[in-house]
């Protein structure tokens, strides 16, 4: 490898702290940065910006970037626009007290051009220059490129049909194609419009108007451009109506009635499907019956105390009252469950088919920025992250509308190089998925499927290409898994070389050789330069909490037009001549971290991605995924867009998908699938104001994340919010805004003084980046639904407004993106307070969703026929308990904060408020649950019971409550689609978590609120992909000691001892009280049944339990038993405390 001279750059920035200048409106005011670059003059700083170019020889794991990804073709080079190739091979670094730099990485050997260029013949096996007639479009209207010889062959022997569109050539003459001369393109006068067919015997339909113009006051439609681009004329049978499915050769006299375009645009993208009344009505009736039964039961319990054991009666009735309140809070939001379905064909017709404003049928869908977050490559294996990235790059969505950002909060070189390898392998994997319709598009999941991979595959080359791609993926896995050792060896070699150089320099300067030389143990990149992120030695400016910000565009934005590949050969594994080989933009981001700054964990990393993406791609919608959650359904993004772009979709802040998991043991011992929450509670919330945000698998509207209010909202007044007042928040001066209302400036509204005031406040709220502030109204406009044809939608966007190429990415843009991920950018702004992901809670996801609903936004729950996303969950008992502990602690934080639903605004529905209030309340149920789990044992020890006698009234009430609960469960199973096994596992883990993690969460939350003790959690480990022959569920049987295990084990031991004591006392008693024994044993058995999965987990694979578990549990059991005997001695002889010698 060698170093060459710096590469000159022409693009500049107006950021005063950036080494670039003058980029128009891409700059940033950025006046607060205290950069050391200010001590140099402008020439020195500019020369430092690109310091060197590194030559890297091509290897199997580092191939040169293809033309499709550098977005450079011959035309771009001729136009003098090399920025995009420069961007895709440059690491940008910068931050606090550091100059923004770009390290250029290039390859020393140029790759052969293997794909067919746009100016070559498109016929297989022909590399001749294509004819350039018809204004560079070729001899056919479809634009298929063909050379003179192939054209003559098609005209002579091919029947005169175009090989591209299979339609006959329109202008075939006898002069051997002389009219399509390469050097003399045809004039526009030769492109005449097609004549109208004869209409003599045709009776037009009522819907048809041959003279009505499509021009309207609100639509500035260019008819001249339409006729030129489509070669059509006005009226029926021309370019207004496409040829597929109607036209000549069908219908009456060779004609068909024209389609109703209004009907197509009016068809909804989504439908709401209610639950059958035969299920929902009995369900609501049972809820009412159980509520009445609970009221009568608790009234009877209060009016009939146990005089013999008032303390036992008091504890039991207190717990039962709390359980009744908890059940009501949990049950009320479930009264209105609904289902939703989407129509993807309507989405395609509306946004990807030719129309008046988009005659070429270019994708008119809005852009989506996909966020993937990772923090520690040791706990989150790079191979898992790589598979998630590959599933995103291969998703079925317009390539130019998609951008993927990976947030590496650890700043690890391992993650960086793994992402580079992923980008290289994606050039093979993504075209393979598109060509053969692969599902799922995660290579590890696809190749690991245990089913017939030939199902529904019709192409003859599928088996051969699958074998080749599988071999390439196996090599890819080997390269990824060997990266840690490769980086270590490389760094050791470079560090040893640096030590030798330091010693040689010491000798030249005549220093004392006996003095040790301190050379920092750096981590080195493959090009022989220091990694600007975290080093393994954790030196200053290179540790996990102290490193510069890094941005690397691994894959540059693609071209607007499709790029087709080449035939299979030595360098191309598959034949991609008919496949678009473009890849979405892929960006590596590691935000700057410095000591003394609160970086706010995952929420801070997500907000950094929001700002970076706003400057680099500015997709109006954002999908966030955990690194272990991959796209299982390639149409998932389209399903989500159906809700966002449908009528009324501008009020939807996010679309939440259910979480589905892989790698769970078949019995689902610890309820990892969590189906009761995702299929019951979340479906029910969808019938109110929308589901909660659960941290991953969610498509956001960008402006909703920015803290703006929806265009319309509803305030709920009166009892239970029955009186509704509609608000139109995009029309100031009509309704009064609340004190902290953020109204979005509307594009095109020049007479709104309030909008001007809001625009002036943007820098204060969003920071000092002008580019970020300028991107906000653009994102709002691009995220709007389409206008109605009648022009009723005052704030919709015109059709075809997004069917334009994306602005190219240059160095000034990336330099601006570096400035917004600095550690101090959020100072004195509203990021984390109102804007972006909300700070202050370990469950930032729930708080962020709550804030949006509180402003009046709605959310939607999208359950697809094929799972949209799949991920992994901890199947180990200890990991699972710590996960639940983190969630419960966040709920306690919410309860003691301003995010408590008691303080919600009137824009939140009553039942939605109840659901959010229950989120903060449910951990406190654990305090009463622990007491109630000990009550059966206490009852057996003392011979008393919660009631004085087991009367018929008590048993009838108990039977009614139990039966109604069982019937409710059956009906929930019917309308949600879960199984009885899932419901029972959820009940079991509710008690396991309620006696272990939830009490600890309450204690930690109280310590934070009262004493200010900060709460820190370790990252949940993601399970790596098991190798062949390994046990897939090995983690299930690993027993890790945790303090959370002590309470459940103590409850189990005390209840088992109590059952033995109670049975013995009753058998040997003079007057046995069997009713009290049966009552105590029944409730003890109820407790032990719920704790059975926990006990099974403690046994491990071979029944081994850590000794410390028995020691602590036995000690606590003995202490509690002795205290009880001392406080309440057994009746009979009282000389048990006296000691007598025999």
TrEMBL record:
<keyword id="KW-0472">Membrane</keyword>
<feature type="binding site">
    <location>
        <position position="379"/>
    </location>
    <ligand>
        <name>UDP-alpha-D-glucose</name>
    </ligand>
</feature>
<feature type="region of interest" description="Disordered">
    <location>
        <begin position="173"/>
        <end position="192"/>
    </location>
</feature>
<comment type="similarity">
    <text>Belongs to the glycosyltransferase 2 family. Plant cellulose synthase-like D subfamily.</text>
</comment>
<feature type="transmembrane region" description="Helical">
    <location>
        <begin position="1049"/>
        <end position="1068"/>
    </location>
</feature>
<dbReference type="GO" id="GO:0030244">
    <property type="term" value="P:cellulose biosynthetic process"/>
</dbReference>
<feature type="transmembrane region" description="Helical">
    <location>
        <begin position="1074"/>
        <end position="1095"/>
    </location>
</feature>
<feature type="transmembrane region" description="Helical">
    <location>
        <begin position="915"/>
        <end position="939"/>
    </location>
</feature>
<feature type="active site">
    <location>
        <position position="409"/>
    </location>
</feature>
<feature type="binding site">
    <location>
        <position position="602"/>
    </location>
    <ligand>
        <name>Mn(2+)</name>
    </ligand>
</feature>
<keyword id="KW-0808">Transferase</keyword>
<dbReference type="InterPro" id="IPR005150">
    <property type="entry name" value="Cellulose_synth"/>
</dbReference>
<keyword id="KW-0812">Transmembrane</keyword>
<feature type="active site">
    <location>
        <position position="845"/>
    </location>
</feature>
<feature type="transmembrane region" description="Helical">
    <location>
        <begin position="945"/>
        <end position="971"/>
    </location>
</feature>
<keyword id="KW-1133">Transmembrane helix</keyword>
<dbReference type="InterPro" id="IPR013083">
    <property type="entry name" value="Znf_RING/FYVE/PHD"/>
</dbReference>
<keyword id="KW-0333">Golgi apparatus</keyword>
<keyword id="KW-0328">Glycosyltransferase</keyword>
<protein>
    <recommendedName>
        <fullName>Cellulose synthase-like protein D5</fullName>
    </recommendedName>
</protein>
<dbReference type="InterPro" id="IPR029044">
    <property type="entry name" value="Nucleotide-diphossugar_trans"/>
</dbReference>
<dbReference type="Pfam" id="PF14570">
    <property type="entry name" value="zf-RING_4"/>
</dbReference>
<feature type="transmembrane region" description="Helical">
    <location>
        <begin position="1107"/>
        <end position="1127"/>
    </location>
</feature>
<dbReference type="GO" id="GO:0016760">
    <property type="term" value="F:cellulose synthase (UDP-forming) activity"/>
</dbReference>
<feature type="binding site">
    <location>
        <position position="380"/>
    </location>
    <ligand>
        <name>UDP-alpha-D-glucose</name>
    </ligand>
</feature>
<feature type="binding site">
    <location>
        <position position="373"/>
    </location>
    <ligand>
        <name>UDP-alpha-D-glucose</name>
    </ligand>
</feature>
<dbReference type="GO" id="GO:0000139">
    <property type="term" value="C:Golgi membrane"/>
</dbReference>
<dbReference type="GO" id="GO:0051753">
    <property type="term" value="F:mannan synthase activity"/>
</dbReference>
<keyword id="KW-0961">Cell wall biogenesis/degradation</keyword>
<dbReference type="GO" id="GO:0006950">
    <property type="term" value="P:response to stress"/>
</dbReference>
<feature type="binding site">
    <location>
        <position position="409"/>
    </location>
    <ligand>
        <name>UDP-alpha-D-glucose</name>
    </ligand>
</feature>
<feature type="binding site">
    <location>
        <position position="601"/>
    </location>
    <ligand>
        <name>UDP-alpha-D-glucose</name>
    </ligand>
</feature>
<feature type="compositionally biased region" description="Acidic residues">
    <location>
        <begin position="173"/>
        <end position="185"/>
    </location>
</feature>
<feature type="compositionally biased region" description="Low complexity">
    <location>
        <begin position="1"/>
        <end position="23"/>
    </location>
</feature>
<dbReference type="GO" id="GO:0071555">
    <property type="term" value="P:cell wall organization"/>
</dbReference>
<dbReference type="Pfam" id="PF03552">
    <property type="entry name" value="Cellulose_synt"/>
</dbReference>
<feature type="region of interest" description="Disordered">
    <location>
        <begin position="1"/>
        <end position="78"/>
    </location>
</feature>
<feature type="binding site">
    <location>
        <position position="626"/>
    </location>
    <ligand>
        <name>Mn(2+)</name>
    </ligand>
</feature>
